[in-house]
Amino acid sequence: MHPSAVEETVQASLLLTLHRSVRLRVTLAYRPEDPLAVRMGFPAEFSLDEPADGPRDGGEAADDIVWVFARHLLSAGLELPAGLGDVHVRPATGRRTMVELRAPEGTALLRFDTADLRRFLWRSRLLVPEGEEHLHLDADRALAELLG
């Protein structure tokens, strides 16, 4: 029986300055019902936004911040700089990969171990091989979600 999704938690470094970074957990997710996309989830405490109901106290759990972008972008960025708009991925020295996320509130630059990203992509391709994403698209469901 094949899993219905791929989810993996990896460590990344959020670069704060040229000489300062902080480690954080990142949840990578892939779902065959959304075959063109990958998801990166980050702990809410790394958000640049304040929650709508004001700052959270230490005891209140917050939802992760999730970025959704093309699986192909993540794959391409392991080899050569890739991306337009809000998400850019590029190889870095020492078997690392940089992911840059741009939002109106600011830009986040994250450094991943390339091996972690390759393993995640390999597992996603076991569910839906590259080039076969169109076989998993459900246009009716997508339209219904879009129209609410």
Task: Describe the structure in your own words.
With about 150 residues, the protein is α+β, with helices and mostly antiparallel strands. About 20% of the residues lie in helices and about 40% in strands. It has 3 helices and 7 strands, in the order E-E-E-E-H-E-E-E-H-H. It has helices at about 70-75, 115-125, 140-145, and strands spanning about 5-15, 20-30, 35-40, 65-70, 85-90, 95-105, 105-115. A 7-stranded antiparallel sheet has the order 4-3-2-1-7-6-5, with helices on both faces. Strand 6 and strand 7 (about 105-115) form a beta hairpin. Mean pLDDT is about 85; it is low at about 50-60.
List the SSEs and their pairings.
Elements (H helix, E strand, L loop, with lengths): L5 E12 L2 E11 L6 E6 L22 E6 H7 L9 E6 L3 E8 L2 E8 H14 L11 H9 L1
Antiparallel strand pairs: 1-2, 1-7, 2-3, 3-4, 5-6, 6-7
Query: If strands are numbered along the chain, what order do they take across the biggest sheet?
Result: 4-3-2-1-7-6-5
Main pleated sheet: 7 strands, antiparallel
Q: What share of the residues lie within helices?
A: 10-25%
Total helical elements: 3
Proportion in β-strands: 35-45%
Contiguous uncertain segments of 5+ residues:
52-61
Radius of gyration: 16 Å
The best one-word shape is globular
Termini, distance in Å? 32 Å
Q: Please give the number of β-strands.
A: 7
What is the average per-residue confidence, as pLDDT, rounded to a whole number?
83
SSE run: EEEEHEEEHH
What structural class results from the helix and strand content?
A: alpha+beta
